[in-house]
C-alpha cells in the first residue's frame, strides 16, 4: 500500500519527533542521539525522511556497512529510525525493514582490588577520589555519579538514592562505611572551599550550581590511571565492572548484584561470571572425578 508523501519542513518534523519522544519519557541524551541519527539518514537521502521508501532504508544500511560504520552505531540508527517511522510517521511497515547488526560482545575490562586502590590514590584531588570511589564502591554509572546530590547520601540507612537512573528508574545503591568516610572527607573539603551548596550537587562542576560532567569524570579516571601506571584501558565504567566482578568473586548472589547494578535483565549481570577469574579458578573441573577412578584402578593392579 502506497502512502502519499506529506510535504513538511524538516524543522516541523524534528519538532514533532521531539514532542513524541518527550511525551514517552525518553531521556534528553537519547533524544539528542535519535535526532542525530535521523539527521544522518536525511543527509544520505538528500530530502526529508518522511518521503523515504523501503528501498531507501535498504540503501542506507548497505551504505553504513560498506563505509565501515560500527555495529553499535548501526543499531543506534535502527532504534532512532524505528521510533521515527513507527511513532512519529505511523509507518510501522518501514520500521520492520530495518535490520540490526550482529556483533560479538567483548568482555569488560576489570581492575584488580590492588589496581583500584592505586587508581583512587592517584586521583586528581579529593573530589575526584570520592567520585571515582563512589563509582567503584557502589557500582554506579558515570552519569549517576555526576548527578548525585548531597541529600542522596543516607548515612542513617547506609544507602545511596539514585533518582532516574537508566530507564528513568529509581533505586537504592549500597553505601559502605569506607565509602561514607571518603565522601565525608570530600564534603568537609568542599565546604571549606565554598563549592558545595546546602542540598546541592555532591560533585559540583566548574560552577557550584552545575554538576560535574561525565567528560570531567572520564578525564579524571584517565589521569589517575596514567599516574598509577595502569596500562589497561580504563574508564569510569571500568570501576562499575570491577565492583560487580569483585562481588561475584566474594560469592555474592548474582541476583543481588543485579539489583545493586540496576539491571533489568539477569543476562546482563551474568556477563560478569565470564570475567570473575577467582570464581572460575575455585570451580572443580569434572575431570578431577576421573582422578579418583584412576587411583582406584591403580590400587587394584
UniProtKB/TrEMBL annotation:
InterPro entries referenced in this protein's UniProt entry, alphabetically: CB, DNA_brk_join_enz, Integrase-like_cat_sf, Integrase_catalytic, Integrase_recombinase_N, Integrase_SAM-like_N, Tyrosine_recombinase_XerCD
Domain of life: Bacteria
Gene3D superfamilies named in the record: 1.10.150.130, Intergrase catalytic core (1.10.443.10)
Record-level GO BP terms: DNA integration; DNA recombination
Molecular-function GO terms, alphabetical: DNA binding
Tyr recombinase domain: residues covered: 106-285
SUPFAM superfamilies named among the record's database cross-references: DNA breaking-rejoining enzymes (SSF56349)
Domain Core-binding (CB): 5-89
Keyword vocabulary terms for this entry: DNA integration, DNA recombination, DNA-binding
PROSITE patterns xref list: CB, TYR_RECOMBINASE
Keyword DNA-binding: yes
Record-stated family: Belongs to the 'phage' integrase family.
Stated name of the protein: Integrase
Amino acid at each position: 500500500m502506497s502512502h502519499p508523501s506529506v510535504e513538511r519542513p524538516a524543522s516541523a518534523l524534528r519538532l514533532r519527533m521531539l514532542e513524541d519522544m518527550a511525551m514517552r519519557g525518553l531521556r534528553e541524551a537519547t533524544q539528542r542521539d535519535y535526532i542525530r541519527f535521523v539527521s544522518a539518514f536525511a543527509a544520505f537521502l538528500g530530502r526529508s525522511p518522511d518521503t523515504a521508501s523501503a528501498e531507501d532504508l535498504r540503501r542506507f544500511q548497505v551504505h553504513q556497512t560498506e563505509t565501515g560504520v560500527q555495529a553499535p552505531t548501526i543499531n543506534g540508527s535502527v532504534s532512532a529510525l524505528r521510533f521515527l517511522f513507527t511513532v512519529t510517521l505511523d509507518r510501522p511497515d518501514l520500521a520492520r525493514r530495518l535490520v540490526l547488526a550482529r556483533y560479538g560482545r567483548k568482555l569488560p575490562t576489570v581492575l584488580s582490588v590492588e589496581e583500584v586502590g592505586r587508581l583512587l590514590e592517584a586521583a586528581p584531588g579529593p573530589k575526584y577520589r570520592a567520585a571515582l570511589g563512589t563509582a567503584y564502591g557502589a557500582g554506579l554509572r558515570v552519569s549517576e555519579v555526576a548527578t548525585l546530590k548531597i541529600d542522596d547520601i543516607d548515612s542513617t540507612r547506609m544507602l545511596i538514592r539514585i533518582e532516574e537512573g537508566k530507564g528513568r528508574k529509581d533505586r537504592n545503591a549500597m553505601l559502605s562505611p569506607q565509602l561514607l568516610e571518603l565522601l565525608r572527607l570530600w564534603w568537609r573539603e568542599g565546604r571549606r572551599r565554598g563549592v558545595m551548596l546546602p542540598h546541592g550537587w555532591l560533585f559540583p562542576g566548574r560552577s557550584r550550581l552545575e554538576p560535574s560532567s561525565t567528560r570531567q569524570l572520564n578525564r579524571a579516571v584517565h589521569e589517575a590511571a596514567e599516574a598509577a601506571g595502569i596500562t589497561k584501558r580504563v574508564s569510569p565504567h571500568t570501576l562499575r565492572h570491577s565492583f560487580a566482578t569483585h562481588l561475584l568473586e566474594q560469592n555474592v548472589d548474582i541476583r543481588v548484584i543485579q539489583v545493586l547494578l540496576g539491571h533489568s535483565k539477569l543476562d546482563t549481570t551474568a556477563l560478569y561470571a565470564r570475567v570473575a577469574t577467582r570464581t572460575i579458578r575455585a570451580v572443580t573441573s569434572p575431570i578431577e572425578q576421573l582422578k579418583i577412578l584412576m587411583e582406584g584402578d591403580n590400587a587394584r593392579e
